[in-house]
Amino acid sequence: MDQLRAMKVFARVVDEGGFAKAARALNMAPPVVTRMVAELEAHLAARLLNRSTRSIALTEVGEAYLEKVRNILVEVEESDALVSESTKDPR
Fold it and tell me: Which of 80, 54, 76 is nearest to 8 (CA)?
């Protein structure tokens, strides 16, 4: 499992309010999105989302994890931008 990618998918599921909408936004098949979140939950040995046929809701641990995930994703984006900028400006 690519944990960083799974974290991005998890955050998108929350942002979009469901697996199908996240799958469309990510241009992925819904079963793949569902599987990635399930694998992340298995890896963490924790349920991040409560699922019903019509909605999802973060669990308490899911809320705390999402906050950390968002911080990590920002750090990754900033790190990528830093490297990208440094390679544009040869020294």
Answer: 76
- Single pTM value for the model: 0.90
Query: What are the structural domains of the chain?
Result: 3-88 (1.10.10.10)
Three-class SS of residue 13? Answer: helix
Interatomic CA distance for residues 58 and 10, integer angstroms:
11
Q: What are the beta bridge partners of residue 56? A: 51
**Residue pLDDT, tens place only, 69-87:** 999 999 999 999 999 888 8
**Do the Cβ atoms of 19 and 13 come closer than 8 Å?**
yes
CA–CA dist 91, 86 (Å, integer): 9
* Residue 43, both tokens: 């890896």
